[in-house]
Every structure is written in structure tokens, then in C-alpha cells.
Design goal:
The structure is a single chain. This protein is mainly alpha-helical. The chain is 57% helix and 4% strand.
Length: 427
């Protein structure tokens, strides 16, 4: 019988359970017992193949469990797409070979096709941070990144193949070096990895600029799913949650159920105007830092919400000062509504931030093309004060020194500039 290798920790519960149930069929001891009990080789093979074909169907058509599921990513994509105007939307459609909404399920498709890429969608650091460390710095426990909540790709504050570093890696594939120099230098270096091990063995046909842009959009969506930032309790997979007599893991509930509960965005121009206004005010504030720096700040915000609004709402405080979470934990409507409101805000701001990053990529693309053609392009990050200072230095220092040098050269008997030019013209 053939074997289908699946990473059980990436599968939905139904698939993981089916995998566990299928394991005895492949065991040699079980095989011998079944033969003694009269189970024929052909019958056993048929049962084994049936189980694995069922698993294959689940893997192909089942709902994945490694990102906001399609509902969450599609919601973020729709908001971003509405904020992209005119030719910008057309340019991005050309770059991605599809609209944002069309590729909302890209991440799930790639994770099923290349399971090793699942690691890109979660934060990891050494040592791992905890909510206790976030609550009380005096305990000396680990925070997200450093004590200020800042992360960088140094293998310590963030592993090179984890969520933040993957965001930086894919973004910088579209960045213009000349434009990057116009931004203030980050206070804490990014240390963007030169390569990602998770995509090392992926064929070149799937490592294209269009696919890199699709990966980036999916990762920005994952950035706004709180449980992706805290490995404690295996990103919530170790906690059972019961809601309306159905059992989930906390991770599964946030991935698959919360997006289903989100209200439909209001229809009409008023909502679009509200989004446009919010985008404009945020973009003007974000525009003077690199997106890779913003990824760091946004991660800090979402990670804090993981502790203060997700886990803290489940905790029981004990008389000795300790805290614990019932497992399984029973969620009521009030808590689920609170989480739904939080997810609603994170998907909205996620869409706004995605639109901002994509517009920045278009700006970088324009500068790359201009630099290749030897043209200069004005950009808001260029400081007129800095440019004025450079020109003033040239006018006050360089030009007088040059004229003085030419005058001194003439006084020593050297040919004047016009004599030098006429001499070359004759030759």
C-alpha cells in the first residue's frame, strides 16, 4: 500500500483524526494479526487505499487550518482592493496575475502543495515569549522580541524563516535600493534573511515575482491573526474550546469560526468614504518609515492583543496570584462577540495596511524603472532641506574652489579654458 505523508499538526481536526485512525493499517504487527484473522491481502489493500484516498480528498477540498481560512483573507483582500484606485489596481492585477480577491486562497493552496511553507506563517523566537512576560517585566520572562517588543531576524528575536522575517524577505524583493536610501535608517536593524529555507526546494516555476507578491499579501493577513504571534500552548492548538456544544481548539476557532461570524461590511458610499479617510490619515503617518519597520510595530500591537484580549479573557485568577485556563474552556456569547469585534477591527486595519504596502511596492517599482533609465523621480521621502543643504554646499564651497583653482592655474601660465577647448577642437 502507498503512503501519503501529511504534517498532522497542520491539518484540520477531521483530517488529523482520520490520519490517526489510518496508522494501524500500515503497521506490520497489525497486518500479521489481520492475516491470522482471515483478512485477505487484497481486502486489506483496498481498505488502506480507501482511507488514503479519503485523506487525499480532504487535503484537496477540506478547509485548511494554517491561516485566517479563506473568509478572513478574502475580507482583508476586499478592503484593500477597494482602497486601490484606478491604474494602481490595474498595475497590481498585472503584477499578481489576478485581483487580490482572486488569490485570497493562495496561501492554503501553497501550504497543501508545499507543507514546509506553513512555518512562514507563524512567529518563532528563542526563547519563546509568554503572556506572563508581557504582563510583568519584573519577572524577567521573555517578551515578544526584545524588552521593547521589537523583533529582528537574528535567529534570536525572530527565526529567519518565521512570519516577520518572511514579510521582510518578500517585500524587499520589490524594493528599490535607491528609494530605500531615502528613508531614515531603522533604529533597530531588520536583518532581512538572504534566503528562506521553507521555499528552498520549491521549483523555480513557483518562485516568480507574481507568486512572491501573493505570498506577501497572505502573510500580511496572517500578521493580523493574533494567535500567529504566540507559540505558547502551540498557538492555541493545545486548548480545547466549547461553544454552543461544539468542540474546537482555540486556534481552529479563530481560524475558521470567527471569520464566519464577522458582519458584512456596510454597503454604500459612506462606508467607502470612511475607509478612504482612514486610509489617507494612516498612510500620511506611515509614509516616512519603511514597511519593514511597520511590520514590526504592527506585530507588537497584534501580539499584545493576543494576551490582553484573547487569553486574559479566558484566565481564572487564583488566590496565590497564579492564573490558569480551564481546558476545555467554555466560551459564552459575550466573549465570542468580544473576539468577533476584535477580529472585525483587525481585518479592517489589515486591509488598510495591505493597500498601503501594495501602493508602496508600486512606488518602488516606478523608482526601479526610472533608475534603470537614468531618470530621477521625486518622492515624498526626499527631504527638501537635505537637498537644499547639498546644493548650498556645492554653491558655497565647491564652485568657489573650482573657480579659484582655474584662476590660479591661469596665473601660473597654463592655458585658459577656452584655449584648452579650441586646442582640442583643432585636433
Amino acid at each position: 500500500p502507498f503512503r501519503l505523508k501529511l504534517a498532522s499538526h497542520l491539518l484540520p481536526p477531521t483530517m488529523a483524526a482520520a490520519t490517526a485512525a489510518a496508522k494501524p493499517l500500515g503497521g506490520s504487527g497489525t497486518l500479521r494479526r489481520q492475516r491470522r484473522q482471515g483478512v485477505g491481502r487484497s481486502s486489506l489493500r483496498e481498505r488502506t487505499v480507501s482511507v488514503y484516498l479519503a485523506l487525499l480528498c480532504l487535503a484537496t477540498f477540506g478547509r485548511g487550518a494554517q491561516s485566517w481560512a479563506t473568509n478572513g483573507h478574502e475580507r482583508i483582500a476586499r478592503i484593500a482592493q477597494d482602497l486601490l484606485k484606478g491604474k494602481h489596481r490595474d498595475q497590481l492585477r498585472s503584477m499578481m496575475h489576478g485581483d487580490l480577491v482572486d488569490v485570497a486562497d493562495w496561501e492554503q493552496k501553497m501550504t497543501l502543495k508545499y507543507p514546509e511553507t506553513a512555518a512562514l506563517h507563524f512567529h518563532r523566537q528563542e526563547p519563546e515569549w509568554t503572556c506572563a512576560g508581557l504582563r510583568d517585566a519584573a519577572l524577567g520572562l521573555q517578551h515578544l522580541g526584545d524588552k521593547s517588543g521589537h523583533i529582528k531576524c537574528d535567529g534570536h528575536l525572530a527565526e529567519g524563516g518565521s512570519l516577520y522575517c518572511a514579510l521582510a524577505y518578500f517585500f524587499e524583493h520589490f524594493a528599490s535600493d535607491t528609494l530605500l536610501r531615502d528613508f531614515p535608517k531603522p533604529e533597530l536593524p531588520i536583518n532581512t534573511p538572504k534566503k528562506l529555507d521553507a521555499i528552498r526546494n520549491i521549483p523555480a516555476s513557483d518562485q516568480t515575482p507574481a507568486n512572491y507578491l501573493r505570498w506577501l499579501t497572505g502573510l500580511i493577513g496572517d500578521l493580523h491573526q493574533p494567535l500567529h504571534w504566540l507559540k505558547e500552548k502551540d498557538y492555541g492548538r493545545e486548548l480545547k474550546l466549547i461553544y454552543k456544544d461544539r468542540e474546537y481548539t482555540l486556534f481552529q476557532f479563530w481560524e475558521e469560526e470567527i471569520p464566519k461570524l464577522l458582519p458584512n461590511p456596510p454597503a454604500g458610499s459612506d462606508y467607502s468614504k470612511t475607509l478612504d479617510y482612514r486610509y489617507g490619515s494612516e498612510a500620511s503617518r506611515w509614509g516616512h518609515k519603511l514597511p519593514t519597520e511597520h511590520f514590526r510595530e504592527w506585530a507588537k500591537q497584534v501580539a499584545e492583543a493576543t494576551c490582553t484580549q484573547v487569553y486574559s479573557a479566558m484566565e481564572v485568577n487564583h488566590a496565590d496570584g497564579t492564573r490558569s485556563i480551564d481546558n476545555p474552556f467554555r466560551a459564552d456569547d459575550a466573549l465570542v462577540q468580544k473576539w468577533t469585534n476584535l477580529a472585525n477591527e483587525f481585518t479592517a486595519v489589515g486591509g488598510i495596511r495591505l493597500a498601503f504596502v501594495l501602493n508602496e511596492i508600486l512606488e518602488h517599482k516606478k523608482h526601479k524603472a526610472a533608475h534603470k533609465e537614468g531618470r530621477g523621480v521625486h518622492h515624498r521621502h526626499r527631504s527638501w532641506k537635505k537637498n537644499f543643504g547639498t546644493n548650498a554646499f556645492i554653491a558655497v564651497i565647491i564652485v568657489p574652489l573650482t573657480l579659484f583653482g582655474l584662476r590660479f592655474h591661469l596665473q601660473l601660465g597654463g592655458p585658459g579654458l577656452m584655449q584648452f577647448v579650441r586646442g582640442h577642437l583643432k585636433t
